[in-house]
């Protein structure tokens, strides 16, 4: 079987690589020439655990190819996946220009029957737009070639993407043709072993499922952040409350950790986009608007604590930052709360020294030399007036408190992810501030 994957980002590259690992012949296409030339040389443009070896292995076996030519990738392909970005447009709706450019490109070059699958996160009605764009191009060419469209939203998590793709909680496919269903079922068969389910449904339901899933997850986060803020006011500890509610099987204990707000390339844009979709049907998604508002405030909560601690005078002070990526195990800094926090500190006249195990190159694109970067976590603590923990990378979990105390100018820790034990921190002589904890002053 031969397939094409258009868009070689987090989703496209992982999808293509994992399919090639099952023996399928995969061509990954991207318009970014630098990305493709790096991939051809074996340089992987993103950090994703397990991906590099898998790419190397499948390239060596001759099953995984990279090109900038969509036309070339169509040769004998049975399926083409569209996995390009869908960034937020100015009004919050998903920008479909990349997806539709690809659809037009497919229409220009299609010369045999094919299933066109949208894997990007796209609003309801996009599969129809893809169908229309391809038809338009075929009509222009005066040819009649059979093709099918389908929607197959992706649920992988950055930082665990390969594992998620190989062992999916579920695969969702929206289709209106038996032919497409048959081909997609065959392609995904190796991933269905051990009872991983594949759910076929109508196209609008599949398109909405992805947004509803991300909106639900974002809701859990904003709900816990709201409860954490209340905990601080009433003298409760959100860690206790979390355990207390999480042991109710109807609630469950996953994804109910408070922090400094959600970020990344998906939740913020997908919450905005579903609100926008509802608006276009004259429906106001009140709950999700609140989810978004809470999140915006939560990204600033740590800086508020810092300013309060220093009596609103942080000018000239130096703050160490541990963690820049929006979550551990990824170098992705899109919509990362760290960006808001660093900008707010700098606006208040503070200096920032940051360390992240893998995201520093990304941070340099954002901040250049306006902040300093450390070689390791302790490097940035030298003469720091405070430490802000922003990403819960494993290497920050059990730090050497003695070394920290010696290096820091001022022993205060603002823990945006609640990874430290408040009592232990105080015992070691640090002033400690977490999120929603009774020990906060
Ligand atoms: P990305 O920005 O990492 O990659 C997108 C790639 O598409 C880029 O390399 C870009 O150069 C390429 N591209 C753009 N236009 C193109 C064109 N006309 N032809 C060929 N290539 C083109 O994006 P991503 O994070 O992989 O996300 C892709 C889609 O998947 C988005 O809709 C996103 O919402 C969705 N998604 C992302 C994740 C995630 O964790 N990143 C998870 C699930 C779903």
Q: Gist?
A:
It contains 17 helices and 14 strands. By secondary structure, the protein is of the alpha/beta class.
Structure characteristics:
Rossmann fold, binds nicotinamide-adenine-dinucleotide, 14 strands, N-(1-d-carboxylethyl)-l-norvaline Dehydrogenase, domain 2, 3 domains, 441 residues, eight-stranded mixed sheet, six-stranded parallel sheet, alpha/beta, oxidoreductase
Strand content is 5-15%
CATH class of the largest domain: Alpha Beta
Q: CATH H level of the largest domain: which superfamily? A: NAD(P)-binding Rossmann-like Domain
Shape type = globular
**In total, how many beta strands?**
14
- C-alpha Rg, in Å? 24 Å
* Count of structural domains: 3
Write down the overall mean pLDDT: 96
Low-confidence stretches: none
CA-CA gap between termini: 62 Å
Number of helices: 17
**Proportion in helices:** 40-55%
Main sheet record:
8 strands, mixed
The third-level CATH topology of the largest domain is Rossmann fold
Please tell me the CATH architecture of the largest domain by its name. 3-Layer(aba) Sandwich
- Strand arrangement, major sheet: 3-2-1-4-5-6-7-8
Bound molecules: nicotinamide-adenine-dinucleotide
The helix-and-strand class reads: alpha/beta
